[in-house]
Structure formats: C-alpha cells, structure tokens
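S1.2 Input.
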Amino acid sequence: MLASQEYISAAQMVIGSYILGLTIRSIIAILCISAILGLLAIWLITSKLNVITSGIQKFKSGNLAARIKVKGTNELDTIGLVFNEMADTLSKNIQELKETDEFRKELISNVSHDLRTPIAAIQGYAETLF
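S1.3 Output.
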C-alpha cells in the first residue's frame, strides 16, 4: 500500500512537471511567433512610411515633379494620394505665378517704353530751345 502511494505521488509529480514544461514551451513558442509577426507588421508599416518620407524630402529639396507611388487604398496610401494632389496644386500655382510675373515684366517694359518716348521728344524740343 505504501509503495503504491509513493508510485502514485511520483507519477503525479512527473505528469505535473510534464504539463508545466509543455505549458512553458507553448508560452515561449507563442511569444516567439508573436514577436516575429509584430516585427513583420512594423517593417511593413515603416517601409510605406519611408516611401512617403522620401517623396516628401525630394519635393522639399526642390524636385517639384516628385510624387509618391501609391499601390493600394489603405490609410498610408491615402496620405500619399493627398500629398500628390497637394504637390500638383502647388506646381500649378507656381506655374501660374511664373506666368503672371512674366506678364508683369512685359507690362512694365511696355509702360516704361511708352512713357520714355514722349519724354524723349519733349526733352529733344527743350534742348533745341536752349
């Protein structure tokens, strides 16, 4: 009787330690898989952010033709689309300002020429009088 009780308690300890070991190994495996999946998710998010950041940096450095390549329809791609629309609007506004500046320069040149011609004639008459 006493030997069977020792056998039962030893068997229960072995089974308990086996379950404990299995539980610990399962938890470690789950943590490793979660860490790998988390790193993969972070890599995917940061790679899209790096594309957006590099496009913005190119635009900032003066390359007004720089646009962000958009491949999907998620939130980060929406940011890229909005940036591209903003860049198109800015480029269009800059082009309009350049055209307006050219028109202003031409207008000033024509006005100054038109004002100089009568003044030159008056100055010529004034010089002949003296």
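S1.4 Remarks. The chain has a mean pLDDT of 86.
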